[in-house]
Specification:
seven-stranded mixed beta sheet, 409 residues, alpha/beta, 43% helix
C-alpha cells in the first residue's frame, strides 16, 4: 500500500521466456551502485590534489624584487644593507648589471629564469663576486661551473654545519622549499639536507673562481620581507650580500618574445601543484585498477534485460548499410548468405560457398535446377556492386527466387 507522496517501486516486466525483466529504473540503480565507488575514488583524488595545490605558495611577479614591499619582495634586506653603509643598486638589465658590477662588488642575481643565453654570456665576464639565488641549470653551468643541482628539499630549517663564517654567524636559517646542490672539490657547502641519504647535498655552496667568490643559494625565502625576521635569515642575507663595499642587485625584466630565453623541458615548466595532481591521479588509478582486478572472477552467463527479435536486428543492420550507402557490403552479405544455404542443397561441401574456385561449379549446378541461364545466375551470385537501391532490392528478389527454385526442384 502506498500512502502520502511515496511512490511504489516500478514493477518488473515479464520477458518472452516468462522470467522477470528489470525496469529501466532498476537497471539505472544497479549501474549507479556499481559505479559510485569509482566516482568516489576519483573525487577523492581530485580533492586531495586541489588541497595540495592550494597549500603550495603561489608565485608572484614581485618575488625577490628589492624594490617590492610585498611579502615575497626583498625590499627590507636592501634597506638594511643601505642602513649599514652598503650602497645597493637595482638593475633590471643584464648588460647594465655587468657594466656596474666591478671588483669589490657583490652581484646578486634573482629570477634567473628570465635571463637569456646572451645575458648569461655577458655576466660571465664580470669581476664582482656572485650571489646566485635559486639559479636555473643554464645559469649554474655558465656562472658557477662545477656546482650541480642535486634535487629539492622541503625541510623548513637547517643548521650551517660548515666553517663558512657568513653561515656560522647566522646560525639556523628558515629556507622553506629549497633546491639542493653538490659542491665541487675545494668548494664550501653548508646547510645539508638531512632528509637526503647522500651526505653531499647542500642548500648553500660557495666556490672560488680566480679572484671572485661565487655563492649559490637554493632558496630566496630567507631574503624575503615575510621571513627576514625569522631564525638567522637576516644575518645570512647581510653576511652574503654585504661581503663587499657595494651591491648590484639584478632582477631581470621578462625577456621579449623570441629573444632566446632559457629552454625548459615540459616537466620544468609545470608547477609543483600540477605535478602533485598528476602523481595523485596515477596513484588513484593504479589503486582502483588493483581493487577492481581483485574482484574479477569467471565469466557468468546472464540473461539480457530485454528480448530483441531477430527481425529488428536485421532491420537495424540494413539501416546502417543504407545510411552509409554501403550497397556493395549489403549485396555481398545477401550473396554470401544465399550461397551458404544453396551449397548443401546442391550436394556440395559448405566450404565451397566461400571458395572462388568452386564458383563455376555452383553457377552451373544452380542453372541446371532453375529457369535462369548461367550468365544470370553468375551475376546474381558473384556479380558487381548494385549502382542504386532499386537494383539492390532487385538483387534480393532474384536471390530469393533462385533459392526457392533450387529447394523445390
Amino acid at each position: 500500500m502506498v500512502t502520502g507522496t511515496e511512490q511504489a517501486p516500478a514493477p518488473a516486466t515479464q520477458g518472452a521466456d516468462g522470467g522477470d525483466v528489470p525496469s529501466a529504473g532498476q537497471i539505472a540503480g544497479r549501474r549507479w551502485k556499481a559505479s559510485r565507488s569509482i566516482l568516489a575514488a576519483a573525487l577523492a583524488v581530485i580533492v586531495l590534489a586541489l588541497g595540495l595545490a592550494a597549500l603550495r605558495p603561489s608565485g608572484s611577479a614581485q618575488a625577490g624584487d628589492p624594490e617590492s614591499p610585498t611579502r615575497r619582495g626583498t625590499r627590507a634586506l636592501a634597506e638594511i644593507l643601505r642602513g649599514h653603509g652598503t650602497p645597493v643598486r637595482v638593475s633590471r638589465d643584464a648588460g647594465d648589471a655587468a657594466a656596474s658590477a666591478t671588483a669589490g662588488t657583490v652581484l646578486i642575481i634573482t629570477r634567473s629564469e628570465r635571463l637569456t643565453r646572451s645575458d648569461i654570456a655577458r655576466l660571465q665576464g664580470v669581476q664582482a663576486d656572485l650571489l646566485l639565488v635559486k639559479p636555473t641549470r643554464d645559469v649554474l653551468e655558465g656562472l658557477a661551473p662545477g656546482v650541480e643541482k642535486a634535487g629539492d628539499t622541503y625541510e623548513e630549517t637547517a643548521e650551517p654545519g660548515c666553517p663558512l663564517e657568513a653561515a656560522t654567524l647566522a646560525g639556523r636559517v628558515h629556507f622553506g622549499d629549497s633546491d639542493t646542490y653538490t659542491a665541487p672539490a675545494g668548494g664550501t657547502a653548508c646547510y645539508r639536507d638531512r632528509a637526503e641519504t647522500d651526505s653531499r647535498v647542500y642548500r648553500l655552496v660557495q666556490v672560488r673562481a680566480g679572484d671572485r667568490t661565487i655563492t649559490v643559494l637554493g632558496s630566496g625565502t630567507p631574503f624575503t620581507n615575510e621571513r627576514l625576521d625569522e631564525e638567522g635569515d637576516a644575518a645570512l642575507g647581510m653576511n652574503l650580500a654585504g661581503a663587499r663595499s657595494s651591491v648590484v642587485w639584478l632582477i631581470p625584466d621578462l625577456p621579449e618574445p623570441g629573444s632566446g630565453s632559457e629552454e625548459k623541458t615540459l616537466t620544468g615548466l609545470l608547477p609543483l601543484g600540477v605535478k602533485l595532481f598528476f602523481l595523485q591521479l596515477v596513484i588513484g588509478v593504479v589503486l582502483l585498477a588493483l581493487w577492481r582486478a581483485r574482484r574479477l572472477g569467471p565469466v557468468v552467463a546472464e540473461a539480457l534485460p530485454v528480448v530483441v527479435r531477430s527481425a529488428e536486428t536485421v532491420e537495424g543492420r540494413a539501416r546502417l548499410y543504407r545510411a552509409h550507402r554501403a550497397r556493395g557490403s549489403a549485396a555481398e552479405a545477401l550473396r554470401a548468405g544465399t550461397r551458404e544455404r544453396l551449397v548443401p542443397l546442391l550436394g556440395l561441401p559448405r566450404s565451397a560457398a566461400d571458395d572462388p574456385a568452386s564458383a563455376r561449379e555452383i553457377v552451373t549446378a544452380v542453372a541446371q535446377r532453375t529457369t535462369y541461364d548461367e550468365a544470370m545466375v553468375g551475376v546474381a551470385l558473384y556479380g558487381p556492386e548494385p549502382t542504386d537501391d532499386g537494383r539492390l532490392v532487385g538483387l534480393s528478389d532474384l536471390l530469393d527466387d533462385l533459392e526457392r527454385q533450387v529447394r523445390t526442384s
